[in-house]
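Notes from the pairing session

We agreed to fold both candidates in a single pass and log them together. This is the raw record for the first candidate, unedited. Please don't reformat it; downstream parsing expects exactly this layout.

Candidate A
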Amino acid sequence: MQANTLVSVIIPTYNRAATLGRAIDSILEQTYSHTEVIVVDDGSTDDTPTVLSRYGERIRVVVQKNAGPAIARNRGIALAKGEVIAFLDSDDYWLPTKLERQLTVMGKAGSVVCCVCNCKVLYKDGSTTSTFQIANSVPGCESGLLLNPAEVLLTRFLLFCQAATIQREVLERIGYFDENLRFGEDYELPMRLALEGPWAIIRNELVVYHASSPGSWAETAVREHLRLHQDLLRMRQQIFLRIQRDPRHARLVTLARRELRRAKRQATCAKLMASTVAGAAALGRLLHVFERLNLAIFRRTSLYPKLVIKELI
């Protein structure tokens, strides 16, 4: 990774005028300054244009009709000039050394697909955790080379968009976000990236993620529970077929099939819970409890993949 590598940072935003400036400032105040900031206004109806106008030529602004984050991010990628691509949601922000740390680690690692860091998660009640803790994926070293990202991503979700710096060349080779997914597009793309080779990983929390922002993914997912699991099932089906068809990934077939079956069961639970048939919702909730118990047991077995990391000195 060269010292003058251009990083294109893409912010998709929709009606987040109150927090958008904080997100943009956190990029402009990075200790690594060779960046371009592309804000894709996804049809905002609030004071977003006024906020954006304050930055003048320090940022690039694209305005489109409301189409969702996948399309907004893809439009930003298409316009980006950087060799490295990064994303930030407009209700979150980066700590000042994020990009510098990530590019340094990518340079040490050599040829890697991307670099992902930890994130501090803030909840409405003031409690905090980290995304690596949630995903049971805390590295044993400060920075390293994650040698089995596909096994890890098949079995847990890592907050990706706010936390990753990605080689543009890899994105061009495998494609951008799946625009047909309302949910899970930020899981499906990382899964494809995980099949491309090792990742660099940083244990430190370099992003602040607000889990309870109005209109957040979490809030929408609760409201559209059935659509969420339908999309996650479709994503799992696509990934399974990709793995099954490629002899290079033969060792992942059993694990991918296990997770596909789990996704099918979870989609069935969601369908029952959304049903108006007498007793169906109660049955769905009961099966959902069993699924959570089954997952908890799986995570305590030897079949659950552990992170395989080579420490970077």
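Candidate B (folded immediately after A)
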Amino acid sequence: MIPESEPHPSTGQLIGLPIDTTPAQRPGPVTIEGRYGRIEKHATRHTAELCAAFAGHDRIWTYMSHGPFTDEPSLAAFFDRRAVSSDPYAYAVIDASGRTVGSLSLSVIRPEMRVVEVGHVLYAPTLQRTPLGTEAQYLLARYAFETLGYRRYEWKCNSLNEPSRRAALRYGFTYEATFRQHQIIKDRNRDTAWFSMLASEWPARKAAFERWLDPGNFDAYGKQRHKLGDA
């Protein structure tokens, strides 16, 4: 096992191991192709399709700090703002037919510490519980670790958001703690559950993702043969 500390050369007190201090890169306007679709820089051209995909689905916004929106112009304005934001830096999820079906972001971007969070995950009902939904997470994590050089990849959610907690564990994040009374969102208390994935853990997580995403893992009806956690 690799030690996580070493003695100070003068005092003998335990201190952290030396780290490569080269800053990570900030995310950029890339397009990353997958087997089931792709992710690409979120732009205003995605707004109309996102509005159509999310219209009438108020449950999606329950645990978000924004929404639901009372009309389409308000929803469109939200997606347009997301398209030009530098943090969160959003990517649209595009299915095999070319339709925009979701959005997810790299946020709380700290290149000097090589820490970044995947968040603001907005999946339309047509994207939820699909191979592309999982693949989008894989593509963004791979980009963060292998291209941008982050060493810590975080996932945070409302502690009451059970689907998000399950998703974090399914994708291979490790639960760390719940921060009590962390925020006030929509005039209500929010306790926040924190999860993380480390660069040292990524090779095993990557292999699990790739085994699960292999077409051979799905039967003729599209049902998974093995769960991601079992892969």
